[in-house]
Design brief:
This protein is an alpha/beta fold and 332 residues long. Helix content is 53%, strand content 17%. The chain folds into two domains: 133 residues, Response regulator (Rossmann fold, 3-Layer(aba) Sandwich); 131 residues, Response regulator (Rossmann fold), CATH 3.40.50.2300. It contains eleven helices and twelve strands. The protein starts with a helix and ends with a helix. Pfam families: Peripla_BP_4.
Amino acid sequence: MSKRNWAPGLIALLLVCCYVLVLVKFFSSTLAIDRLVRQIEPGKAEAATLKHVVLIAQELDNPFWRMVEQGASEAAGQLGMRIDYMGPIRINPSEQMTLLAKSIAARPDAIVLQGISDPDYDRLINQAAEQGIPVIAVDADEPGSRRLAYVGTDNREAGRRMGELVVKGAGGNGRIGVIIGSERADNQRHRLEGFRSVIAMTPGYEIMDVRSSNISRIQAAQQAEAMLHEHKRIGTIVGFSALDAPGILEGIRASGHTDVRVFGFDEVEETRRGLTEGEIQAAIVQQPCEMGAKSVHLLAQYFKGRTTLPERHYIPIHIVDGERMKRAAGSP
């Protein structure tokens, strides 16, 4: 047979080999993709079983609310949930309401939020409940709504404890100024009510002025300075939200006063420093991490079928002063 007759056969054989090779690669790729899909699918199924919980804060980057988020996220990681954290950049009840409405429309498995004591907010929470979305109020309650439970401080009791601290540590000057975080928030009003109940029963003590910081350190400073210019004989100023005590210290310095005692709420870094250095006499300290974690644990019980829960879950508070701060730091 001539070389010319071999050529077409050789070309045909090469074409067949190439075709077979392409088929082999195609089926190998298909099998590889199939294996990959099988590996991914359990992950998708696992993700689908995660309960989606929305946490709506009063203020997005407030240290207190970041700790609530931390506690909720840590508990969620242990209990098969996913936390979506959101909130206004600055305190804004209207924006909280908008975020709640949008969250309900997204149909999460549950919502954790701060109560703001508003009838429209109540209606939104009721709407969530009607759609099978449980709502837990944290830090401030929304008792007029169909929320599942409240988790947070017993705020009237915390106010009473603050009153006892001030009476004990006011140094004989019973003229008191008060800075609250917000006039609209029930938790602030309840703290003030508890505080008033003690001061009203103690001879020689009087609340001279009450002002709002709007959960702002700068406004707390401005209000404290203005308060001291108007009431020059005030001997004690009490702050009822986390950023108030550091702001009050700034206001006292700006006013030129040197003999004003400060009592605060919660334990942000500036408050701890003020306690250690003796500029703040004492602080009532909440447990925001525990509030977040407890809220998630209650939801876990609800998801397992326990639809009736106690309405209020109070998280204990404790008192911190300069001596305790020094002991905790190991100072002599």
